[in-house]
């Protein structure tokens, strides 16, 4: 009988790609979703849906019934540590035999970015649980460029408070491909895996690629952190979350995500996707604004 894989964060930036990777591999995964109709719209009939939420630990534990392998991913929320640690405890209690946790490059208890400290706390709890586990620490997501879709479309500007630092951005689909390889492998590969894109690029490089993609001049503007915070708050991001996002950009500005590696190719057998590959796949996001269109979720790090 095949082992059941549960994907938490199934409709998230990485989770939605992972579910499709597993289906393409001939596996019928179980996806934890808040909204059953939305989950069915995204994944069709090849996926078993479990309706639940990290804010309701009983639903997460119920979703783990008869599950053997778990992909653990939670949004960057104030209760992330409590939510993921409770899920780890439930995984141990229900007999799950393998965990792949989505973390972040730079996760450390002493890190300045709040998001990275939270991931480090969860990683520590996972290690203490003694569950067989692999932790994925991906670099800055290429999909974070979606945050600039509106100023890019309307004004030809790519704004970010990151200076001239080079960043080894990664396509979330590559993170999912590695997660799928680890979940489907015959044996667990314990430890921590850092994942990066193939190149270390500045936002100036990103603007150049976007100019090529869109056929019109796109200019990178290095904006002050205060201006970035005001723009995020105006877009509906709570002030504390905006401050935490700025902590990430400050770390990037100091080259926290500059080095690259070949771990995507090691685990998937193919090179990591380039930034231009990613932009071409999502060209519609940066096309002239359509009535009723919405920008994508951002900052998956």
UniProtKB/TrEMBL annotation:
Cite the InterPro entries for this sequence: Ergot_Alk_Oxidoreductase (IPR051604), NAD(P)-bd_dom_sf (IPR036291), NmrA-like (IPR008030)
The residues covered by the NmrA-like domain are 3-257
A Pfam family hit: NmrA
Database matches in PANTHER family: PRESTALK A DIFFERENTIATION PROTEIN A (PTHR43162:SF1), PTHR43162
Q: What is this protein called?
A: NAD(P)H-binding protein
- Look up and give the organism this protein is from: Nocardia lasii
């Amino acid at each position: 009988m095949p082992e059941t894989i549960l994907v938490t964060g199934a409709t998230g930036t990485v989770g939605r790609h992972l579910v499709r990777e597993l289906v393409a591999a001939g596996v019928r995964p179980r996806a934890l979703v808040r909204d059953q109709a939305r989950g069915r719209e995204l994944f069709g009939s090849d996926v078993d849906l479990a309706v639940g939420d990290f804010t309701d630990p009983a639903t997460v534990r119920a979703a783990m019934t008869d599950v053997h392998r778990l992909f653990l991913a939670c949004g960057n929320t104030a209760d992330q540590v409590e939510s993921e640690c409770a899920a780890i405890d439930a995984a141990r209690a229900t007999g799950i035999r393998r965990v792949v946790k989505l973390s972040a490059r730079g996760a450390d208890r002493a890190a300045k970015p709040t998001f990275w400290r939270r991931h480090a706390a969860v990683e520590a709890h996972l290690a203490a649980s003694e569950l067989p586990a692999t932790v994925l620490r991906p670099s800055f997501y290429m999909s974070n460029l979606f945050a600039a879709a509106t100023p890019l479309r309307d004004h030809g500007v790519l704004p970010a408070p990151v200076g001239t630092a080079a960043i080894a951005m990664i396509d979330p689909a590559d993170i999912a491909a590695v997660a799928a390889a680890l979940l489907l492998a015959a044996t667990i590969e314990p430890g921590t895996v850092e994942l990066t894109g193939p190149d270390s690029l500045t936002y100036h490089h990103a603007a150049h690629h976007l100019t090529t993609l869109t056929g019109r001049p796109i200019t990178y503007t290095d904006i002050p952190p205060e201006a970035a915070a005001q723009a995020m708050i105006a877009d509906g991001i709570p002030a504390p979350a905006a401050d935490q996002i700025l902590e990430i950009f400050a770390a990037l500005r100091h080259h926290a995500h500059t080095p690259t590696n070949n771990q995507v190719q090691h685990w998937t057998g193919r090179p990591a996707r380039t930034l231009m590959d990613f932009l071409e796949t999502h060209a519609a996001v940066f096309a002239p604004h359509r009535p009723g269109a919405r920008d994508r979720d951002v900052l998956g790090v």
